Amino acid sequence: MFAIDSARRLSFNRCISHGDLVIVYERHDNMKAVKVCESSVLQNRFGVFKHSDWIGKSFGSKVFSNKGGFVYLLAPTPELWTLVLSHRTQILYIADISFLIMYLEVIPGCLVLESGTGSGSLTNSLARAVAPTGQVYTFDFHEQRAASARDDFEKTGLSSLITVGVRDIQGVGFPDEYSGLADAVSLDLPQPWLAIPSAAKMLKQDGTLCSFSPCVEQVQRSCETLQTSFTDIRTFEILLRTYEVREGKMDSCQGVDGGSNASLPFKRKKCSDGSNVLSSSIPPVVMARPCSEARGHTGYLTFARLRCIS
Ligand SMILES: C[S@@+](CC[C@H](N)C(=O)[O-])C[C@H]1O[C@@H](n2cnc3c(N)ncnc32)[C@H](O)[C@@H]1O
């Protein structure tokens, strides 16, 4: 859990306590969020882990089971939380989130409006980006989803930076009280063009908007609406290529330039199956291969800047 101290700084530099949320990390594709409870245990294929052994340890600690197996106890950063949260809706993932936060110019102190909240995947990252003095106001018309998101923000320790509202943003727009105050607006809605006029009203001069849509037809309609009061309209599709890095043998590989393996201690080599290999030493070699199950298209991110009137 994030600790927000009296100076409203976010920090994980403290020890794990009863009631904290930790990410139990086995490997990059096997993690889960666990609430620490003094009298509980975690049981997995490595044995039984007593939560009481975790209390007082720093985030990042390696802890051992009754059988000598181990896991790491990581802090629930927005990056890790995105990978373990319960999916109540489609969510945004790290590649889209990081690009969105950079392109929207979200920095500490910003006021950001968001709709829909969904599973809160994006909201956590927005909140950390505006901390310690900013605020994220996020809206979803689905009451139960909004309530679950509120619970999650309590668990991740970011609730003081996030206000969750229940509201039909496509129908009635954002609340008038934020008119002209928002540094950025983020939309992940089925018909974002219905919310764009209200978003324009909420933004400060020079404020930025992002709309995430999975289909290009939605992007086209949004862009048409954006032309009215926005400038610098740009759409991106973020395609991520993940490589799995592991140690292995080089028998079926040879240097691309035909040189001997021993003369290429840090070079890219071509394998017989066409994949690229990064060799760091021979033997053993560390190989990086594209993951076969890497996620492809998630959606389109359309950005625009409010046109200055004067
Ligand atoms: C795909 S989810 C958003 C996921 C979110 N970006 C995340 O990363 O977890 C879309 C959300 O929009 C909400 N929604 C749909 N129409 C809405 C409307 N008119 N007003 C407010 N929220 C709406 C849905 O209830 C749903 O939770």
Automatic annotation (TrEMBL):
Its EC number is 2.1.1.220. InterPro entries: SAM-dependent_MTases_sf (IPR029063), TRM61_C (IPR049470), tRNA_MeTrfase_Gcd14 (IPR014816). GO terms for biological process: tRNA methylation. Signal peptide: none annotated. Residues 69-305 form the tRNA (adenine(58)-N(1))-methyltransferase catalytic subunit TRM61 C-terminal domain. It catalyses: adenosine(58) in tRNA + S-adenosyl-L-methionine = N(1)-methyladenosine(58) in tRNA + S-adenosyl-L-homocysteine + H(+). Keywords: Methyltransferase, Nucleus, S-adenosyl-L-methionine, Transferase, tRNA processing. GO terms for molecular function: tRNA (adenine(58)-N1)-methyltransferase activity. It comes from the Eukaryota. S-adenosyl-L-methionine binds at S119, G120, S121, L122, D140, D168, D188. The keyword Metal-binding does not apply. It is found in: Nucleus. GO terms for cellular component: nucleus; tRNA (m1A) methyltransferase complex. PANTHER family: TRNA (ADENINE(58)-N(1))-METHYLTRANSFERASE (PTHR12133), TRNA (ADENINE(58)-N(1))-METHYLTRANSFERASE CATALYTIC SUBUNIT TRMT61A (PTHR12133:SF2). Belongs to the class I-like SAM-binding methyltransferase superfamily. TRM61 family. This is tRNA (adenine(58)-N(1))-methyltransferase. It comes from Quillaja saponaria.
